[in-house]
Every structure is written in structure tokens, then in C-alpha cells.
Amino acid sequence: MRITGHHPLWRIAAAVLGGYAFTWGFIALGMAAFFSLGMPFHDAEHLTAIIGFLIYLVLFLWAFAARSLARVWAVTAGGAAVMAGAASLIQHQLT
Amino acid sequence: MFQSFRLSMAWLHTWFGLTLGFVLMVVFFFGALSVFDREIDRWAVPQSRFEPQPMPSFDKILRPVFEQMQPTQEAITEMAPRVNGPMPQTYGTVERMGAYTTHRDPVLELFIGFDVPNAKDPEEAIWAYRTIDPRNGASLPDDRLKIGSEFFYPLHYSLNLHWLDIGYWIVGSAAMVMLAALVSGVVMHRKIFREFFTFRPAKTAQRSVLDLHNLTGVVALPFHFFFAFTGLVIFAGIYFPVGHTQLDPLHQVSEQLEAAETGLPHDRAGVAAPIASVDAMVTEAQRRWHDKGMAGEVGFLVLQHVGDANGYVSVYRAGTDRIALTGEGIHFKASTGEVLREDPAPGFVDNLNEFLSGLHLQHFRHWLLRWLYVLGGLAGCACIATGFIFFVEKRKRQHAKQGIQGARLVDALAVTTVTGMVVAALGMLIANKLLPDSLPAGWPPRGDLEQYAFWATWLLAFIHALARSGPVAAGLLSPAWAEQCRAIAVLAPLAVLLNWIITGDHLLRTLSVLYWPVAGLDLCLLFSAGVALLAAAKLKRRALAAPAINNAKTGAAHA
After folding, report:
1. Which domain holds residue B285?
2. pLDDT over 50 (residue A1)
3. Structural domain tally of chain B?
4. Domain boundary residue among B346, B362, B381?
5. Based on the domain organization, do B315 and B436 belong to the same domain?
6. In this complex, do B242 and A24 lie within 8 Å of one another by their Cβ atoms?
7. What is the pLDDT of residue B320?
8. Minimal CA separation from A3 to chain B, in Å
9. Residue B481 and residue B201: Cα distance in Å, rounded?
10. Dist CA B296 CA B299 (whole Å)
């Protein structure tokens, strides 16, 4: 079995890993941003986790439903990098 | 890859549901049992069969016990690699100690953590545990496994696989897949409303099993979604450890802010100080809760930096009267008993989070809801199990023609996770009663042997399911289903009988004094035996009828 670009493994990887990375980025950015706006750290942690799991679920389903797998990877990996980077920038400002 | 949205969702539902469904079965079944974990503990540990007790006096009961507690030799050996230099044999500096109880606990577990000199992580403590009878402070034998709260309950969320937290990750993936399966299941079936009322047991196995799959999935849909989701939220710190990795520097800043704001010292002062009366602090805490109109039982009592001038005592309320997992903690200076801080009313996010986790963990007192949780959990099991059977029924004849072993393997795994799991739990309960009270020297601890009995029975059930799966490859029903049902019908009453013989608590006695923890489990065991007998009889009828429908010739060569 040759693993080509159309193999289900790529979709599964996009759903599981891409979705996880995007959610990580969202949680990191949300925590840093809410904390910088005065929300207690653990409140920010809980709130972004609650929303984060719902985002993960939507991305997970979308990865299988989307016509273009490349777009899924662009959004999840790209979004993850941008948001995680922004989170580290905010942290750098505050520490 | 897929022609339509619906097909993509069907693919996802089938294949993810199949692979992680086996884990979900374990999570739902042992989750349902965990609703009554404390009661299962009573059945397993006869010394603890008395009424639930409030938190006892610290000054009179707890303090003398804490003063005797030391880490076990195993704990010392286990920690040695994380310490520079040799491990001391006795420990004196207590970093944290306390006790936790609920409205369902007769016995009380105490924990104590000591400072370890030269630990590589200076924050790491070495822990010791002891379970006592809170009425007199007498210690219970510490090799008694509380099967409900110490085995079935952690099995529900960690599979009891602790290496690299791998069990948590597997269960977390399964919970994520449960959410995806619920959404994709709704997409696949357009006639959601009709499926509430559709069950055609007289039709073919494939049709009726799908009806039941849809029915149990749809009826309990909010329950399933909520529990999978809140389970993830409860362990969010493990699945997304952002605050301990990428944002750890920010976390440190926030902790310093918090310590300054709450006035609760983060570190020891290095100056010795005595402990004032903790009972007086508890009385003061209860007075303050009472003024706010709240039930005043103590759920959690914890002392930090014990014996130091910076030591403080935190008293938390047992939240039996509300869903949210909240404690209304009040903190006292240990040396004087003055109030340092009263936790402020939770904000919006705290309320939301405590509501979500509280509704999952249900520390509140509501027996009807407790039973509904059991039913919801079992409905989840029925939904997953029927999913497996539908998968097999749909494919087994075709696989038989093509000589593929797929349906056969799935069927054997389904037997293992449906009936085999019940058999394994029964094997554990039976081992719990058969093992002698004190084991010969050199044997593993009693609780470990009970766990081995569980895994060994399960492994046997798997081997049996696999060995008897031949007929599935011929498009027929595996006899393993009926045989394991009969095993349940024998083992469950045997557990009840052994409980009677070993502890003397037969049903007439426990029912006459209404001791529900033991009577309830005995009754459930007998009920399970009845259900298993019915299922075995039904399976036998079906097996006798089957060859007439099937063309037994196809695939028989592959059996």
C-alpha cells in the first residue's frame, strides 16, 4: 500500500496532529491574552481549555469533510504557528 | 477522498468508532461502576462496613496518627533516582498533610508529604498514606485494595497505565473520538426524531442491532456528549500542559502575584512554630459557612508547611448540597489560629468550570441522579457494543465468502470488551474474597494479587473469545458470546456466595439493616447473573435458528 497524498493517513494526521497544534496555539494565545487583560491565570487556563476542546472537535470533523487537504494543513499548522508565536510574544512583554 | 460530507462522516464514524470503541467500552463501563466506587469499596474491604463518618477531630484523632506516619520502603526506593546522594530512612519535615472525605466514606484516608533533602526537584515531596477508622483512629491494614475507588475508578480515566501517562492519553483520544462519533452519527442519520421510537427486535440481527445502536445513541446523546466533553476538560492540564511548558514563565509570575494577593506563604520561613488547635479553626470555619447558609461538613482539611512559622491550615467544605465542585476554603495561620484568608466567591469562569467538573464527578448528594448516571453509562456501553455487532453483522457473510478474518477478529474483541470485561471484574471480586486475610511472607501485596486476577481473567476471556471465534469466519454466530454469558451467570452469584461465607454479610442480614453498599452490590451481581442467563438463552435460540438461514457451505473451509 503506497501512501500518496490521497491516503486516509494524511487526513487522520491532519485531524489529530493539525487539530491538536491549532488548539494548542489557541489555548496559549487565549491564556496569554486573557491574563494580560487582567483575568486570573487559572481562569484563563480553564476558559480557553473549555473552548479549545470544542475547536478541536470542529477541526477534527472538518479535516475529514474538507475537499482540499492542503487547506486543512495550511489553516491548522499555519494558525498554530501564528497563535503560539503571538502567545510567546505577549509572555515576553509581561515577564 | 470522499464523495460527500455524509460519506466522510460515515467513514470517520465507522473506523474511529471501531478502533477506539474498545477503549470507550472500558471507560463507560467502569465509569458507570465508579458512580458507586465507595460502595464497592465497602464490599471489598469488610473492615470498612459501617456508616459514613464526618471528618474527625484533628487534635484528638488525626494528629497522633500523622505523627506516626513514615513513607514505605517502596516509596523510598522509588524516589531514590530523583535524589542526589543517599535517601534518609526517616523523615521529619512535613511539607503538607491532610485528609479528604465525602458523605459516602466510613473510613478516612490520610496523606502526608515530607521534604526530601537534596531532591533534584526541591518542590518534590515523598508521600505516605494511611486509612483509618475515624471513630477511634485505628489503622486499617494497608494492603487492602479499595477496588472501587482505587482500581475501577482510575481504570475509568487512566486504564491504570501510568507509564508516561499513556493511559490518560488513550482515554483522552477515545473521548475526542466519542465527540466526533456523536456528531458524525447525527449527520449520518437524518431521521433523528424517528429513531427515538424505532426498535424492531423481530427483524434481522443487523437491522435490530442498528435500531438499538441509534436508540441508545440518540436517547442519551446529551449525556454522552456532556461526559466525554467534561472528562476532557477535567484533565485539560494533562492534554494541553501549556501553563507548565510554553507559558511556564507567565505561570510563575502569576503564582507570585497570587501568593502576594492571598497572603498564604509559598515557602517555609525556617523558624519552628507549634500548631494551635485545629479543631478550633474548623469550628470557626463552620461558623462562617453557617452564616452564609451552607451545610457545614468538612470535606478536605490540609496543613501546609507543618511546624513552621509560615505554616497554615486550609479547611474546605464538603459540597454535598450543590453541583459545582466548590470548597469555600478558609485559611488559618497554623501557629495562632487567626484567619489569613477566606476564598472569595468564584467568578464566572470558576463557576463554569466547577459546574462542568462537578456535574461529572458528582460529589453532591442525590441518589436518584446517581442511578441515572449508571443508566447513562450502561446506555453508552449498549450503544458502543451494538456498534461493534452491527459492524460484524454487516460484513461477516461477505468476509466469509472472501476468506477475510476482519469480522472474526472484531467479533472476538467485542466479546472480550463486552462480556469479557464483566467476567474480569467478577474474577477480581472473587479473588478479593478467596485470598487469605494474611498472605505468606514473600508474596506480593494482597491488592496487587487482586489486580493480577483482574488482568489474568480478562486475558483468559480474550483467549477464549479468539479460540471460539471460528464460526464467525463462516458467517455464523460465535459461541463465545453465550459461553461468557454463562460464565457471568455462574461467577456473579459465586461472588455473592463468597461474600456471605467469608464476611457473614448475606443479603437477608444486609437488607434487614438496610446496609445498601453491600446489599446493593450483591443485588446488582444477582441481577447481572439473571440478565446473562436470559442473554445466553436467547443466543442459543438464535444459534439454533441460524444455520437454516445461512448457507453454511460458504467459508466453512476457513473456520
Report:
1. 51-144+261-346
2. no
3. 2
4. B346
5. no
6. yes
7. 80
8. 13
9. 18
10. 9
Q: Which residues contact B307 (CB under 8 A, 6 or more apart)?
A: B93, B94, B272, B273, B274, B275
Cβ distance of B1 and A31 shorter than 8 Å: no
Rounded Cα distance between A12 and A20, Å, is 12
pLDDT given at position B42: 96
Instruction: Give the distance from residue A47's alpha carbon to the nearest chain B alpha carbon, in angstroms.
Output: 6
Do B341 and B416 fall into the same domain? Answer: no
Whether residues B412 and B506 share a domain: the answer is yes
Using the predicted structure, report yes or no on whether residue B16 has a pLDDT greater than 50: yes
Q: Which of B303, B325, B346 is the last residue of a domain?
A: B346
d(CA B481, CA B182): 27
Q: Within a domain: residue B542?
A: yes
pLDDT in tens, B384-422: 999 999 999 999 989 989 988 999 999 999 999 999 999
Q: Are residues B446 and B528 in the same domain?
A: yes
- Determine, for residues A53 and B11 on separate chains, whether the beta-carbon distance falls below 8 Å: no
Q: Which of residues 199-258 of B touch A (CB under 8 A)?
A: 229, 232-233, 236-237, 240, 242-243, 246-247, 249-255, 258
To test the contact with chain B by mutation, choose from A50, A62, A94 the residue with the greatest count of B C-beta atoms within 10 A, namely: A50
ipTM of this predicted structure? 0.95
SS3 content of chain A, % helix, strand, coil (to 5): 85, 0, 15
CB contact under 8 A, A84 and B246: yes
Q: How far is A76 from chain B (nearest CA, A)?
A: 16
Is there a domain that residue B73 lies in? yes
φ, ψ of residue B505 to 5 degrees: the values are -90, 80
Does residue B278 lie within any of the structural domains? Answer: yes
> Do residue B295 and residue B416 come from a single domain?
no
Q: What is the pLDDT of residues B40-94, one digit of tens each?
A: 999 999 999 999 999 999 999 999 999 999 999 989 999 999 999 899 989 999 9
Q: Which residues contact B351 (CB under 8 A, 6 or more apart)?
A: B324
Same domain for B126 and B272, yes or no, is yes
CB within 8 Å: B356 and A32: no
* B301 SS3 class: strand
Tell if the CB–CB gap between A47 and B352 is shorter than 8 Å: yes
Nearest-CB residue to B253 (from A47, A64, A95): A95
User: Residue A49 corresponds to which cell in the numbers above?
Assistant: 481549555
Answer whether residue B225 shows pLDDT above 90: yes
Q: Do B247 and A28 touch (CB under 8 A)?
A: yes
B425 plus B326 within the same structural domain: no
A65 chain-B contacts, CB cut-off 8 A: 2, 5, 8-9
Phi then psi dihedrals of residue B111, to 5 deg: -130, 150
Higher-pLDDT residue of B552 and B364 is B364
Is A28 in contact with B253 (Cβ distance < 8 A)?
no
The answer to whether position B168 is within a domain reads no
pTM to 2 decimals? 0.92
Q: Say whether residue B5 is in contact with chain A using an 8 A CB cutoff.
A: yes
